Amino acid sequence: MTATATPPVAQAPKAVTRPGDKVFSGLALAAALTILVTLTGVAAFLLAKGYPAFGAGAEDLGASSFWTLVGPLLFGSVLSSALALLLAAPVAVGIALYISHYAPRRAARAFGYVIDLLAAVPSVVFGFWGITVLAPYLVPGYQWLEANLGFLPFFAGPAANSGYVMLTAALVLAVMILPIMTAVCREVFLQTPRLHEEAALALGATRWEMIRMAVLPYGRSGVVSGAMLGLGRALGETLAVTIILSVNPTVITFNLISGQNPSTIPANIALNFPEATGLGVSVLIATGLVLFVLTFAVNYLARSVASRGFSGAAG
Hints:
Layout: H1 19-54, H2 58-61, H3 66-102, H4 105-118, H5 123-149, H6 166-190, H7 194-202, H8 207-218, H9 220-236, H10 239-244, H11 265-272, H12 279-314
Helix pairs in contact: 1-12, 3-4, 3-6, 3-9, 3-12, 4-6, 5-6, 6-9, 7-8, 9-12, 11-12
């Protein structure tokens, strides 16, 4: 019995490495390392300069401890940013869906340009708009909320006659983070596989049912990423909140329409840094370190949630 010769296994051709590929790979690696080094340097600077504040006594801080001092500021930052995200997220998703799946092509292009331009407006402009236009306009609404929903802690009042309250600041922050959230959601929705959309429509789904079954599950990671990017910007916003809010840095309250408002970490730094000396500078830098850690944690959580969402959509 004659043995059958086994044909030789064809080897895959080796990829050709071009000089341009090496240059691009090196530049990409250098950019990534630069970001890591920069973040490490910022964290080290904040820790070194703010460390004296963590062990300072009550007579130096004006509070029982550093955490007692930073607690109301951290509360104000989280409260204003969470409110802004809650107000902006549904609107951003709705605008992105309209641009990507409802609007005619020319109108979608025009809306996209407007959204992108809105992201370029300086924060100080939003702040002055909020204090001169939005705040006085919303005062009757705040008085109505106090009269009809005053049993809720959010609208207990007394409503401030100036309108310089936490809810006004949150509305302005919502307008500020709306462009970046809308842009991210729009790009993700536009990348939904066309075959998935056509298959849903072929099975008799309406346009909204197609969006609910095919577009939103696929774009879940993008929605989360856009929301966290917006939250990161709201947490770090300084001028708009400083201009609008009438703050008391020691107050912790959920009342959104009263004149007693908690301050935020960025606003507190902006207001007090020019006159701070010695340990006061260390205290402000230490509060900046707390905000840095909070923002880093929010972005890390967003990355993990977005990765799981993308894997689920792909599966």
